[in-house]
Specification:
The protein is 17% helix and 27% strand. By secondary structure, the protein is α+β, with helices and mostly antiparallel strands. The protein has a domain at 1-41.
């Protein structure tokens, strides 16, 4: 169809990682953004801390 500038709504989990003023390919359902496919220039997602395993102290 072609590029269009529109006002859309998005899911709460998508809103946190959606880049501002960048081009992004997203999964859209009507006017609702449900997911992100790709972002030109990369997506800056803060990494989650890994949980320590129970036996990790004994392995060292």
């Amino acid at each position: 169809v072609g590029p269009k500038v529109m006002t859309l709504m998005c899911d709460a989990k998508v809103f946190e990682v959606l880049p501002v003023k960048k081009e992004a390919k997203v999964v859209v359902s009507g006017i609702y953004i449900t997911g992100i496919k790709s972002v030109r220039g990369g997506l800056d997602i803060p990494e989650k801390k890994k949980k320590k395993r129970f036996f990790s102290k004994k392995e060292k």
